[in-house]
Each structure stands twice: as C-alpha cells, then as structure tokens.
Design brief:
Layout (H helix, E strand, L loop, with lengths): L5 E2 L15 H15 L1 H5 L8 E5 L6 H12 L3 E5 H4 L6 H16 L2 E6 L2 H4 L11 H17 L6 E7 L17 E4 L5 H12 L10 H6 L6 H17 L7 H22 L1
Adenosine-5'-triphosphate (ATP) binds next to helix 3, helix 8 and helix 10.
Protein name: ATP-dependent metallopeptidase FtsH/Yme1/Tma family protein
Organism: Lepagella muris
Length: 270
Amino acid sequence: SRATVFDKNNGTPVTFKDVAGLAEAKVEIEEIVEFLKNPQRYTELGAKIPKGALLVGPPGTGKTLLAKAVAGEANVPFLSMSGSDFVEMFVGVGAARVRDLFKQAKEKAPCIVFIDEIDAVGRARGKNPNMGSNDERENTLNQMLTEMDGFGSNNGVIILAATNRADMLDKALLRPGRFDRQIYVDLPELTDRMEIFNVHLRRIKVNSKLDVEQLARQTQGFSGADIANVCNEAALIAARNNKKTVDWNDFMAAIDRIVGGLEKRSRIIT
Ligand code: ATP
C-alpha cells in the first residue's frame, strides 16, 4: 500500500512528563488513557467509549506531543498521518489512504490514530466551488466519515485529530460518534512557559545562575515549539562561542533571533 502510516512507538515513548502546562487538556486526555488501559471498567457499565477527540489550538502548542503522550502512557501503538497526505490529485487515492489507515488501526488495536491538520480534508463541504480538486477532497472526507461510523465503539481504537481552525470543519465531523469531544490547547501563560522551559532545559547544560522566570517573562506570545527552538538556538550560540555552559546572554540572543523569525512570519500572513 502507498499510505505512509508509521508506528512511532519504538524508541522512548513520550509521556505526560514531556508535556508542560496544558493542565486542563491533560485532565481530559487522561480519561482517554483510561479508556485504552481499562476498557472493561466502562463497557461493563454499558458505557460507550468515545471514538475520537479533536485537539484545537494554534500551531506549535503541543497537540501532536499530547497525542503521542496518550499512546506512550497507555503503551499502545501510535499511527499518524497528516490531513494533507490524503489530499491528492488522482481520483480515489485519498479515500484509499483513509481505508488503509483504518484497516491498519483495526489490526493494531488497541491503538491511537492521530490525524494532524484534519482541516485539509475536513473543511466544510460545498465551499470554494471553483477549486477543481474539491470533489476529490469531499470523497476523502466521506470515506473518513464512513470509516468512523463503521467502527464499533469500544473496539480499542481512538482517533485524535488536530486543527487550528475548528470553526472551518464540516459539522458532520463533529457529530456524536465522531469527533464529539474538543480539547483546547492554547498558547502558554507565564507559569506554563516556565514549565516548558524546564522541560527543554533538562537536555541543556545551563549556567547555574540562569533565571527561568525571567526567560518566561521575555517570551510572551511564544508557543511551546518556539520555546523549544529558543533553548536549542541558545545552546548553538554558546557552542559557537566555545562556552562551557549556556548563559543568559545566549538565551537573549536566541530570543532575538526567534522574535525576528516570528515577525517575518506575521508580516507574510498580514
Ligand atoms: P502544529 O499545529 O504546528 O502541528 P502542534 O500543536 O502539534 O503544532 P507539537 O508538534 O506538539 O505542536 O509541538 C512541537 C514541539 O514543540 C514539540 O515536539 C515540543 O518539543 C515543543 N512543545 C510544544 N508544546 C509543548 C509543551 N506544552 N510542553 C513541552 N514541549 C512543547
């Protein structure tokens, strides 16, 4: 098959310790870990386990990380695909990839299926009638809906999908029995940014006087991905200058570089 589904559960699994901040999202997602670990607890009482949840939030805030952590905590395989991988020019390819993904999921159950950028397939139907490939995208979306409906609940497969534009999604995707739960993953506040720094500073030899709270204050509006970038960039700058540890000045230089990048990004968007 041509689908690029891969099992990323080899190597060290991601756990909740790797995900900083996001306290509310973690509480909701912990329930999904329980569904995977102890399904009988729910099914014996006659409860239907949800088939899927939608992770909603800006880019780089940890949606993929959180989905991987669910698989890591429950110790089940993680099958992942991006919505854009389903959007193909050739008729039937997208739908075939959807079928293939769900087939693999059934074989590997219990498991997590993660669909990043679901909006690439799941945009509301009937918009942009001028775009030629729209019919094909609708076929793919219909196949996804069919697969989700065909799935019994309580079969050990939970589908997580990520988007930064839940408002653009076809309402059919959000109906009960599909992605009927939404979990918000927002940009981090000050204390969350401190936690994110602490996660990423674990890997780095930092100067003992480094003030993490001040770093968090200097990075308002940064996503978790931006902060991970700052830490790595600071270490590169320190290495370039032959330092033994990474210090405040290296971090300030790294933040300047990333802010420069962010400004460029928003200038392109606006
Ligand atoms: P996108 O919408 O762009 O796909 P995303 O929300 O899925 O982004 P991730 O891919 O999960 O973001 O995050 C990218 C990287 O940023 C992570 O691998 C991690 O290194 C870092 N990161 C993001 N959020 C957090 C967080 N809450 N705690 C720790 N690290 C984080």
